[in-house]
Amino acid sequence: MIARNFAYLQPDTKEQAAAFYQEFAEPFYYGGGSEIITMCRAGDIAPDAVIDLKRIPEANVLRLEGDALVIGGCVPLRAIGDSGLFPLLKLVCGRIADHTNQCRITLGGNLCGTIQYRETALALLLADALVVLFGPGGARAVSIHEAFDERMRLLHGEFVLQARIPAQALFLPYVHVKKTAGEKIDYPLVSLSALACGDGVRVALSGLLPYPFRSRAMEDALSNRSESRERRVQNAIQCLPAMPMADYQGSAEYRQFVLRQTLAAMMEVLNL
Amino acid sequence: MRRIEGKAIIELRVNGEARTVAVRPSDLLLDVLRNQLGLTGAKPGCKNGDCGACTVLMDGWPVKSCLVLAVEAEGHELLTVEGLEGKSPVQAAFVGHGAFQCGYCTPGFVMVCHAMLTHHPGAEELVMEEWLQSNLCRCTSYSEIRDAVRAVANAGKRE
Questions:
Q1: Angle, helices B89-96/B142-158, rounded to nearest 10 degrees
Q2: Contact A33 B5 (CB under 8 A)
Q3: Euclidean distance between CA atoms A156 and B46, whole angstroms
Q4: Could you tell me which CATH number the domain at B86-158 has?
Q5: CB A263 within 8 A of CB A236
Q6: Which domain covers residue A14, as residue numbers?
Q7: How many Å apart are CA B144 and CA B62, to the nearest integer?
Q8: Quick one: CA dihedral A179, A183, A184, A185, positive or negative?
Q9: Does A100 contact B27 at a Cβ distance shorter than 8 Å?
Q10: Which of A3, A193, A253, A257 could staple A122 via S-S, CB 3.0–4.6 A?
Q11: Contact assignment for A10 to B48 by CB distance below 8 Å
């Protein structure tokens, strides 16, 4: 039971959604709702309105359009996976929460939620995707690298309308590995996504630091074929932007150990 | 566009019937199914989206009804374990394989398995593993549950 009531708004258009947002003092955009409901029940948040975005047509798109794969912010992870249009993202989505929850969690919700792992960002960062954001100021299409810096950087009242993924990134050789401390369904110790691109590799990580990130310095180190694989992995680890997290799932040293093994396995799979 | 503030009358399509309920926007589907419609098959377990005891189907896909607002479900087809009317092959297989002990998690498992076998009639092991990881059984009847689902999936492969 959620003790404190709120208004429920279900706009048919993105413009209505943004207008609703401005009408309330503490509104929340609502996609799959898993996190909002959980936090409301726990009393961590007390919205006066939830704005359900699922009837906005542009937020439900999942198709190839010209030279890009377009995924609406309200498309559930299960549908993204089932489409098979972006195999790396399919794997990523398949390891977020469990299958039933994947039927509800949306791309936009995963990117913008408070749970720090936000693993769909890994695939978008590697693919140099664009995100289309919509808010009271209208629409803006920005690079994921600009929009996502440790977390989504949204202007007041904005939501993720779509992600646009360049078609050339969709079928590059890829790896996604999520290592957990125990159960398969759990938060990651290390979640690593990689795309092989030309002679090099793009790498993004979640679970290691309190935010997902893509590191060009690590990519350069891993792509330097003049060094042995072992040395490249070591150099990449030295390029980490901060010390790995330490929490109940694993110490910083253990996370670094897991990262080392995971990077070594990735190098082998991608034949780097 | 829909706007609901305070309490509202909504119509839910549950097990093929139109049912009218009075809800607040913050009311959870699980609570409305159980307390207003008397459909107590979906069980409150963790009420946090982890255990799957409250699983029902919405437009044929499993959802944890503790993580769905009742107002969101308007306009969608809901199916609870009562709607199977004991006729799902999954239910017969659970009985045949003794796939429960206390039975509290069983409706949730049955609904997930029913949905899985509807979408994947001859589901392979990997598909079963993915889908069944959504539910917990504290009596640890997992091997019997897997045997039951495997039996129905194997029958699906032969058809």
A1: 130
A2: no
A3: 34
A4: 1.10.150.120
A5: yes
A6: 7-50
A7: 21
A8: negative
A9: no
A10: A193
A11: no
B66/chain A closest Cα distance in angstroms: 8
- Which stretches does DSSP call E strand in B50-120? 55-58, 61-64, 77-79
Inter-chain contact B3–A99, Cβ cutoff 8 Å? Answer: no
Crossing angle (nearest 10°) for helices B89-96 and B106-119: 130
Whole-complex ipTM: 0.97
Element (H, E) at A264: helix A252-269
Please give the Cα distance from B28 to A214 (Å, whole number).
38
DSSP run (H or E) holding A71: strand A68-72
List the single residue in A7, A10, A34 with the smallest CB-CB distance to B49: A34
Instruction: Give the CATH number of the domain where residue A185 resides.
Output: 3.30.390.50
Q: What is the pLDDT along chain A (272 residues), one digit of tens a residue?
A: 999 999 999 999 999 999 999 999 999 999 999 999 999 999 999 999 999 999 999 999 999 999 999 999 999 999 999 999 999 999 999 999 999 999 999 999 999 999 999 999 999 999 999 999 999 999 999 999 999 999 999 999 999 999 999 999 999 999 999 999 988 899 999 999 999 998 899 999 999 999 999 999 999 999 999 999 999 999 999 999 999 999 999 999 999 999 999 999 999 999 99
Question: For residue B28, what is the nearest residue in chain A, using CA coordinates?
Answer: A1
Domain B8-82 has CATH 3.10.20.30: yes
